[in-house]
Specification:
Glutaredoxin, 5 strands, 5-stranded mixed sheet, globular, binds FE2/S2 (inorganic) cluster, disordered N terminus, 4 helices, 138 residues, alpha+beta
Length: 138
């Protein structure tokens, strides 16, 4: 069920629901060692994400390529019944906290639409696509 406009403005009042944070581990930045997969920017971002304290509603899932390769690093938020968001242009060394903060807000929405004013700046600038929920997936 979608949240009312009033609730969207105050997500702190909404219980969080499980969601997935997909992170591309194969994204590269200029200067990355092409022969060392663990040194790639996406792998570094994934390592930074899993080094943060775990949030029980956020499942971090490493994936190989989100088809946003020209806008490295890339990640996505998804959950049943919610809009899926894909983000790019995420800085490998700083994006972990940004993504986790954004994911927590996403988990607190009923439909996946984080109020614009509450979105971290990197997620406002880095949004690549949003995809509607599958019918019957709520
Ligand atoms: S390699 Fe990361 S999106 Fe393609």
């Amino acid at each position: 069920m979608a949240l009312s406009t009033e609730l969207r403005d105050d997500l702190s009042a909404v219980p969080a629901a499980p969601m997935r944070l997909y992170v591309c581990t194969t994204c590269r930045e200029a200067g990355d060692d092409a022969d060392d997969p663990a040194a790639r920017a996406g792998a570094r971002l994934h390592a930074a994400l899993i080094a943060e304290p775990a949030d029980p509603v956020i499942t971090i899932v490493p994936v190989e390529c989100l088809s946003v390769c020209t806008r490295s690093c890339a990640a996505s938020f998804a959950a049943p019944g919610k809009w899926t968001y894909v983000y790019g242009d995420l800085p490998a060394e700083q994006a972990a906290r940004i993504l986790l903060d954004g994911a927590r807000l996403y988990a607190q929405t009923g439909d996946g639409l984080i109020p614009w004013k509450q979105r971290p700046a990197a997620l406002k600038k880095g949004v690549v696509a949003r995809v509607p929920p599958l019918p019957g997936a709520a």
